[in-house]
Amino acid sequence: MDIQVSHVSKSFDRKQVIKDVAFTIPSGEICCFLGPSGSGKTTLIRLMIGAIGADSGTIRFGDVQMPNLGMLSKIGFMPQNDALYDDLSAESNLRFFGGLYQMNPGQLKQRMNEVLALVNLSEHRKKLVRHFSGGMKKRLSLAASILHQPEVLFLDEPTVGIDPVLRRTIWDQFHEIKKSGTTIVVSTHVMDEVTECDKAALIYNGALIEYDAVDRLLEITDNGKVEELFILASGRTQGGAAV
Ligand SMILES: Nc1ncnc2c1ncn2[C@@H]1O[C@H](COP(=O)(O)OP(=O)(O)OP(=O)(O)O)[C@@H](O)[C@H]1O
């Protein structure tokens, strides 16, 4: 399912935090939202999943204009702060999410086995989440977000605070999920993660300063580093030009 964001703007308390943003993510691609803290990545994700409304502009998933309740079963969302119940086991957490998605018991059982295996938590399924490490919670949170086989998956800073080895594992899992045709939108402020993605949206002060295939974006820099694009953008801002 293609995602089309057309001239979307959003203000909070009269401060514009998303400024006329427009781009299209082709079906089945991984797109990252890259930008410094406070640049607007989470707000853009919340707009796209329909958690908040835009002041202007439109967001379409395929032919459907968001927000649309019927689309909820096709969307997976992994929030920045894990939305898990500490006092429940891993599998009870997944059962809770399965209930939200109205999955039938047979389907839920099969999917629980599949997603726990994908995130390497099968042997910890009976353990209470309060005894999980931070990395295990991240992986369980990812498992919960894909339980219902969403067509589009939103991941808000999924690797923040994660060590490099586990980060590699988690990215391998994203690539595995992509193989099933899922479109993935992932926010990050780790510049190196851009090379894991097909497309990148560079967000700075609520504006989209670049959106392109990652290969092409890296070509237009002198040193092949994405940071350079942000340095150029901040220079333009200080000079008074719009970015
Ligand atoms: N509900 C809200 N009310 C008022 N201001 C908000 C609200 N949500 C976000 N903002 C503001 O919007 C701006 C963008 O925030 P957002 O969380 O989208 O950035 P971000 O790029 O995701 O940051 P981070 O990487 O730190 O998560 C910030 O200035 C933030 O303070």
Automatic annotation (TrEMBL):
Keyword Electron transport attributed: no
GO molecular function: ATP binding; ATP hydrolysis activity
Keyword Amino-acid biosynthesis: no
Keywords annotated in UniProt: ATP-binding, Nucleotide-binding
Pfam families in the record: ABC_tran
Domain ABC transporter: start-end pairs: 3-230
InterPro entries the UniProt entry points to: AAA+_ATPase, ABC_transporter-like_ATP-bd, ABC_transporter-like_CS, P-loop_NTPase
UniProt feature coiled coil, ranges: none
The protein, known as: ABC transporter ATP-binding protein
Lineage of the organism: Bacteria, Bacillati, Bacillota, Bacilli, Bacillales
